[in-house]
Amino acid sequence: MWSGVPRKLAQRWADERQMQTLTTAIGPLMLPEDPLCLKRKISRKKWSKFVKGASAIFATILLPPPPHRFHPSGLTNYQAIEEPILKGELGANTALRIEIVHPLVKGAENFCYQMRPVDESHIWVAKFGMLPLRKQCWRSVKCSHVRE
């Protein structure tokens, strides 16, 4: 799972470690060029719900490094949908452990730390330092899936 990291980079990171992204886990259902792809057969709204639901099964998350880990709006699919599912906030089973990797930092591509049940980001900061605050170009997000 990734948020704030380019999809191609996330896919390459997973492939190099023999891990799966949502695209590899679901296979042809995610590939627009494949005749089995659901995206070509269902509405955009249903496709979005399918992807959001399916993506909640992952527990290794690729994010930008601190202090930019999360989108400031809090409205990304990860923040508003997937993380609450992983944490069990919606009544479902919880992931026992959520690990974070920051593949955008050279030398940190294989370093992971626990975010849940205990946020151990201080271990990453101790090893790699807090990156200087810089202008982060976050994509715009809609607030159609805000939790109440």
Strand order of the largest sheet: 1-2-3
Count of runs of 4 or more consecutive helical residues: 5
Uncertain parts: 144-148
* Beta-strand fraction estimate: 5-15%
Rg over CA atoms, rounded to whole Å, is 16 Å
Could you give the distance between the termini?
A: 24 Å
Helix content: 25-40%
Main sheet: strands, sense, barrel: 3 strands, mixed
Overall mean confidence score, pLDDT: 77
Return the string of H and E elements: HHHEHEEH
Structural class, by secondary structure, is alpha+beta
Tell me the number of strands.
3
The gross shape turns out to be: globular
Tell me the domain tally: 1
Offer a quick outline of the entry.
The chain has helices spanning 7-16, 22-26, 44-55, 77-86, 121-128; strands at residues 60-62, 98-101, 112-116. With 148 residues, it is of the alpha+beta class.
Overview of the structural elements:
With 148 residues, the chain is of the alpha+beta class. The protein has one domain. It has five helices and three strands. The protein has helices at residues 7-16, 22-26, 44-55, 77-86, 121-128; strands at residues 60-62, 98-101, 112-116. Strands 1-2-3 form a three-stranded mixed sheet, covered by helices on one side. The protein starts with 6 loop residues before the first helix and ends in a 20-residue tail after the last helix. Residues 144-148 have low confidence and may be disordered.
